[in-house]
Amino acid sequence: MPACHRCDRCPFPAQACDYWLDKGSGGYDGPSSRALFELAHEVKSLLEPLRRAEAAKAARLHHLESILLQFNEVFEPGPSGDLASPIGLARALQAQQEQMAQMAEQLAVANRRAVVAESRCIATLAQHHRAHRDEMDRKTMQHDENLQQVRAACAAKIRAVRSVQV
């Protein structure tokens, strides 16, 4: 606060008012000294509510600072680890959610690869099945041919035996 313009001994308004009250009390040489005395009284009466407001503001500030300290104790990670506070838990949860998202992407890629591998495997098995079926068909045809040859040979022998008997 600026000092009073007449003396450098009173740096605060209340002290300046006290100085002018002391100087103006008692003898009033003119109307201006009485007006100065009354003005000092009025200013001093206005300063008291300002002082109370300043004290209330300081008390409120102190209260808010204590609330902020309590908040920081609860919501800021402490020396006991990152999971000791809600902020630490939220960070860990966020990291796990990101990790789960990455793992879900990796799982989707693995599933696509598995589907491709499965379709290749099914195609290979189908190809082997067709080859086996074709081989069985060839063997069946060969057996049928052999059977017909054996039947034909047997029939020829039976006819030969019958022709000898007659």
What would your notes on this structure say?
- It is a single chain.
- By secondary structure, the chain is mostly helical.
- The protein folds into two domains: 13-75; 98-165.
- The chain is 83% helix and 0% strand.
- It has three helices and no strands.
- The protein is rod-shaped and about 185 Å long.
- It starts with 12 loop residues before the first helix and ends with a helix.
Keywords:
166 residues, single chain, 2 domains
SSE diagram, text form:
Layout: H1 13-24, H2 31-75, H3 86-165
Coarse morphology? rod-shaped
Number of helices: 3
Number of structurally distinct domains? 2
Average pLDDT level: 81
Q: How many individual β-strands?
A: 0
Order of helices and strands: HHH
Q: SS-based structural class?
A: mainly alpha
* Main beta sheet strand tally, sense and closure: none
Strand content: under 5%
Question: Ranges with pLDDT <50 over ≥5 residues?
Answer: 1-10
Classify the helix fraction into a percent range: over 70%
Q: How far is it from the N-terminal to the C-terminal residue, by CA?
A: 155 Å
* C-alpha-based Rg, rounded: 56 Å
